[in-house]
Amino acid sequence: MGDEVLTPDSSRYWPVDTYEVGRGQPSFDKQYVRDWAAGSGWDKRPPAPEIPEDVVAGTRARYVEAYELITGEPFTVWLERTGAGA
After folding, report:
1. pTM for this one?
2. Please, what is the Cα angle at 74 between 72 and 75, to 5 degrees?
């Protein structure tokens, strides 16, 4: 999809300074939510459990960090420029 190009969900982004061949990498995608869901006891049948606020906040923090590392600008600058934070 066009709206998924080079996003943390359509592409895998890992911090280069901690990358190690042959092991799982810390990532900036929705794997954080998948890991939470796998450990929650949910059997993958509807309805899905509500995602706790700390998991939502942790996911957001990963996406913001990815944005800032890729663009070199604070996410708050983007919010101000686009009016998305209003």
Report:
1. 0.74
2. 115
